[in-house]
Amino acid sequence: MDKVFKALADQTRRYLLDMLHEHNGQTLGELCRRLEMTRQSATQHLAVLEAANLVSTVRRGREKLHYLNPVPLNEIQERWIDKFERPRLRALSRVKQQAEKAEEAMADKPAFVYVIYIESTPEKVWHALTDADLTAEYWGHSNVSDWQVGSPWEHRRTDGSGTADVVGTVVESSPPTRLVTTWAAPDADAAAEPSRVTFDIQPHGDIVRLTVTHENLADEAERTAAAGGWAAVLSNLKSLIETGSPLPQQPWLIPQ
């Protein structure tokens, strides 16, 4: 939390967060166009924001895209604001939602990026993402596949019907650090390009940083649905791994 307060204490870094809130997924060059400073100075400010987990990055070819990560802001709200002035400052709780709704400027950029930290190992997180029984426990659907490159996968209901609400193909599988799959409705137009989900699992001591990138979404409505869905599912996953049980209520049923 000290790193977060340090990062927010600087006007330039607050301005960088404002720019990413207005237009998420910008390169260093795009950010520098509105800053009266050198690329080296901007890079130093971004490094402070990354260290505080206020900004996450994704590489797309030779470009490094920067994304606002609202999780630490939400933690500040819960610890330092809500318990004192919840009614008057309730609007701050919407920071995360507003950041997730920011439009992407280019079609080839990730449409949604979410970062969460879990006290676990890469192997356990990988197992939780790919095991049919575990996914059924925290997701409400079973992810079924042999998880080999080129293999199909299905997001099956747990009511015994065998119905899959999402289907796709395994594009990349590098256990326990990276999994890439396509996502589409079973009745989707075969000519339409499906969306793609990437799970990046990065260990650091006794914790894991799980980054989920969901790209090529059809429109803003689909992006908004993905934003709310991933936040709920990954919170449930974190609870299951760290405590042995998912959250007591299904988080995706909370009204937006």
UniProtKB/TrEMBL annotation:
PROSITE patterns: HTH_ARSR_2. Residues 1-88 form the HTH arsR-type domain. SMART domains: HTH_ARSR. It comes from the Bacteria. Belongs to the AHA1 family. This is SRPBCC domain-containing protein. It comes from Streptomyces mordarskii.
